[in-house]
Predict the structure.
Amino acid sequence: MMDFESILREHGLKSTPQRSVILSQIYDSGHIDIEQLHKRVIGIIKIPLGTLYRALTELSTVGILTAISINGLKTHYEISKPSHAHLVCDECGSICDVEYNASNLLENIDLRSFQIKSTMLMAHGVCVKCKR
Ligand SMILES: [Zn+2]
Ligand SMILES: [Zn+2]
């Protein structure tokens, strides 16, 4: 279990039960879209979809969450982690994390002319379950 209270404080946000529930549910799911998240969250705490949307936007803006846009899927949210790539299954929509080293990729970029804040690599394909 992550210490969401400290994470929130480090990012200048107050720790509230609502934010803690949202973060722990996202943490448990890995990657989740707002509707799936809402279904999980309302079992624990009453929060309207609009409020949840605003909370997700706020948590993404300060960098605690990363919003992942994927072709053909709703925006998914995850707890921000060091650079990793996403393997997206085009059949079932599952999203898998895989570590990668971005340095090969980045050495082709002139860092004096372009300042990188984050990188996001995504591979589309078919997962092992759908391949069977
Ligand atoms: Zn699949
Ligand atoms: Zn991820």
Q: What stands out?
A: The pocket of zinc ion (ligand 2) is lined by residues 31, 78, 84, 86, 97 (CB under 6 Å). The longest helix spans residues 17-29.
